[in-house]
Amino acid sequence: MKKIVVLFFAFSLILLFTKCKKVIDRAPVDSPLAARNYSVPELKAIATCTDACNKRFTSDATFIGVVLADELSGNFYKEIYVRDRYNTGAIRIDFLFSKCNFFIGDSVRLNLKGYDVNISSVTGMMEIDSVDYDRHMVHFASGANPQPKIVDLGQAPYSNSYCDLVTINNVKFLAADTGRIYADPILQQSLNRTIQDCGNNQVIVRTSNFADFAQQKTPTGFGSITGIATAYGGASQMAIRRTSDVKMNGTGGCTVYSFEDFNDNSITNDGWGQVSVVNSSVNWVASTFGSATFAKISGFISGNQNSENWLISPPLNMVNGSNPILSFKTAANFSGTPLEVWVSTDYVSGLPATGTWTQLTGFALSPQGGYIWTNSGVISLNAFKSAATRIAFKYKSTTAGATTYEVDDINIREN
Amino acid sequence: MLTHSTGLMQNGWAVTASASTRWGNQVYIPGTYFQASAFYLSIDKRINDKHTLSLTGFGSPLEQGRSSAETKEVFELAGSNFYNGQWGYQNGKVRNASVSKVFRPMILLSHIFNINEKTKLNTSVFYNFGKSSLSGLNWNDAPNPRPDYYRYLPSYYYGLGDTAMGDALKYKWENNIDNFQQINWDRMINMNRANLYTSPSQLGQGINTTESRSRYIVENRIENLQNIGINSIYNKRIDNLFISAGVNANMYKNRKFKEMEDLLGGDFWLDVDQFAENLGVDATYQQNDIDNPDRKIVKGDRFGYDYSININRAEAWGQAEYSIHSLDIYGGLSVSNNVVWREGFVANGKFPTTSKGESKKLNFFNYGIKGGATYKLNGRHFIAANATYLTRSPEATNIFIAPRVRNDVVANIKNETVLSGDINYIIKAPTLKVRATLYYTQIKGQTWLRTFWYDSYNNNVNLIMTDLDQTNQGIELGIEKTLFTSHVLQGALGYGKFVYSNRPNLQAWQDNNSVQLFSNRDVYLKNYRIGAGPQLVSGIGYRYLGKKFWSAGINFNYFDEIYLEPNPDRRTEEALDKFIGSDSQYQTIIDQEKLSSYYTLNFNASKSYRIKGKYYLGGNLSINNLLNNKNIATGGFEQLRWDVSNISKFDNKYYYMTGLTYMATINFTF
Q: Chain B closest CA to A130's CA: distance in Å?
């Protein structure tokens, strides 16, 4: 009897213990949906607001994105660049302390409460300043492989891509900057090396003397470069993450079919010529104003005259071209007929009517007043590849109006 | 070991003396050693039938070279669970930086007064004194000399994304290039010899070219204890009532200071707080002793800090035991009072007004009541129950925020309360002994204080929990059954649940200044297990008693529910502020690690011979961990320093059980 009591006693106690599972305390944290998430365009709207708005976040808010550039190489110090999760832009995050644990491909989340978002007055880039990553930033996943965006310096403004990871194709370092070290760790100098594309647009590749690749030499060839689009004092810059992102060993170059800057003070050199269709007194002439030399035409000779005159390029062989484009600059004054641009693949010589011409559209022209130099932008000639493609600038004036047009830097090339 | 007892001699004297010594070297763990001796002397004088005086003295000086707990990464890099980061070669010889020495003898003078057959009064006076010291490296203006410092591990560089450096370190560790795994004593000595230092105050006298200032030293952190007290107990039996009462009082003074042990080739060490140097515009701020600034310390000098913890205690208690029929009951009551204070003996630059002199004297009044009963079901079966409620003062080491540098006390320090009860079922039969116990203890209002180095602040941090409650409950079962006189079976089980049972309050201070780092944070600690060893211990054993005074036995032990003591700072809402529930880091940070269960097999045997009727010769062999399992982590801890952005930077540290060990003894009694 007693033994039964004892055993019952013992077993019930053991059972009591094993069944009695108490819930272990958990320190509370926020749920994932608690805070509002901001994209880069939304941050930009806050950073650029002008009507007494608040650039500081005062309530729970987050910025979530993927890291594009980290401190590993030494080229970036106390900063990372992060593209937002919606892939609508990127931002620079500046830290209080270095040696953050965030690397390229990490998915990060920043608690914005208490921080400001600003456009830096020195660089023009958008940034969140003095972030304490230990207290406010979490790396919650890794392994993403953010791809660079391809940018065309001639097309959209470079500033649209600030802070993002970009690739610029068809570039080459300037002659003075080829085969030179990226930066000087011995003299402790960060250095600028300039690249140029086929539209003569330039970007400064700036490297810190603390970068582990600083002493490597810039390549001498032609190709593409990938890095973070940055800026300083209004000048477009780029910071690279590693030298394997610089793929500029090609022997090719900018294929230029024709580049006419009229600096030889002649309309008819280099195969260019003009054909007057109406009123042979109105002609294209080489003209100088200040340091610029350009082609100029005006239908005003003691009053507005009727006229039509074509400035025609030499025949251009773009049969093997992949992406031929046209770009030029214009400056204009006085109202009249807008300048037209036409293309032909069969014109040979004489009056333009002897060939078949297609009008090109979708480019920018200088407004008819003030002689404001305006870049046309990039006009694709892909549909007009032939062994003898011709570009023509067709000028017209009437007695009602005769605009003075100046044309310069006519660039027909592979983009 | 040698023991001799005269027994009570005709002249009324009785003497017992014993002396022993024991030493060991590098049992599995390199760099460790063990040297201990013990002595005991007791002289009794029976004055007459009523009075006996007894003088007893004993002590055991002990010196040990210690080992370190390490992270899993370090054990893997070293290729052994017995890696010890505390030693290195000095001129080809093994030298351990962490040597612990203790010698605290006790002297007791007792008076035994048999007032009559049923009444006794025993009084004794004791004096317990002596030093304990722990040596360690200290350094200034030099790299950390510890081989297992987290920045010398590949994981630090892998965490920064520097795989090249991480791989290089991994190679050095795994191949022990130039004894990379251990302390490099020779390099420290060379660096010290080369450091010709001119102190700013001496610049006018020319550059010093003769004396070198040590960058590295070995210092001893010493505690010099003096504890003197008196204890008197009165017993009286009146039929079925047995009363006892007593008073005791003692004065405890533990003086703590540092002493220079080894300048390691240098000529002096400057007594300044090297961690306050970075803060200083004021040279006084970094002085450890503002009355003796920039003191040059040589071997044997006291430096760094010098203070004592003093506790004066008095207690009175009474207890009555009463037996009626099959029931024994007892009840007891005690009251005590502690006065605790700190006394500083040097004024330091960081706390010039609160470091030297006495702190305010804290008074803790405590009381306790207890009671219980044993019911005899029959001659062999008993049921016993006990209960107690008492208050007790907090440990002196948990009262002062930063006792090395200032007098300040943890705010609202108060007594703890303990409520405890147990029920037991006992069987005492010739061939069966059983004890089954169910117990429950609740301790409330504890204060918990730890100090650790935090390199972000370049300073020590004092982390304090107040109002900490815990619950210890469990069952214990012990059975011993003898079969056919020679076979003894034993079984034991202890299954407990020791948990923190509330959400205590957390605050933190720096050693360098009196500005609080933070206060009043709730620690979400409820039902976290207390990290104090396995909470499930069990064993079964078999022993054979041979006819000719020999025995052999084997036992199997199983241990489980081993948890690592949680770092309270990791379980607060404030520390986890940047996380959301879906972040994997959140779970990793708050989880409490449970070690794997393990079992061991032990063997022992003994034999004794009787020689010539009055001499005995005996031998004993015991073998532990018969299966030579070297992968048993017996315990460990979470590091108090942690990085919220990289939890594996300061990983948990573990201790491993040694493989098979054996001990053989021979004893001879004459």
A: 16
In angstroms, the CA A404 to CA B90 distance is 93
- CB-closest option in B159, B438, B579 to A29: B579
Burial of B84 (0-12, 13-18, 19+ CB in 10 A): buried
| pLDDT average, residue stretch B639-651 | 92
* Residue whose structure tokens are 């409490």: B592
Q: B645 and A22 in contact by Cβ < 8 A?
A: no
| B603, B614 contact by CB (below 8 A) | no
State whether A317 and A340 are in the same domain. Answer: yes
The one-letter amino acid at B563: Y
Q: What is the mean pLDDT of chain A?
A: 90
Residues of chain A in contact with residue B427, where contact means CB-CB under 8 angstroms, are 6
| Cα end-to-end span (Å), chain A | 101
Give the contacts of B489 (CB within 8 A, at least 6 positions apart).
B479, B480, B481, B482, B483, B540, B541, B542
Query: What is the longest distance spanned by two Cα atoms in chain A?
Result: 136
pLDDT bracket for residue A323 (50, 70, 90):
confident
Q: Domain range spanning residue A115?
A: 36-141
Min Cα distance A90 → chain B (Å) is: 22
Angle at A388 between CA A385 and CA A391, to 5 degrees: 80
What are the start-end ranges of the E strands in B347-415? 357-358, 362-376, 381-392
Count CA atoms within 13 Å of residue A266 on its CB side. 7
Phi, psi of A384 (to 5 degrees): -125, 30
pLDDT at B275: 76
Looking at A225, A250, A275, the residue that finishes a domain is A250
When divided into structural domains, chain A yields a total of 3
Residues A284 and A222 in one domain: no
Nearest CB to B381; choose among A2, A10, A34 = A2
- What ipTM was estimated for this complex? 0.79
Alpha-carbon distance A226 to A145, whole Å?
A: 14
Distance from CA of B438 to the nearest CA of A (A): 8
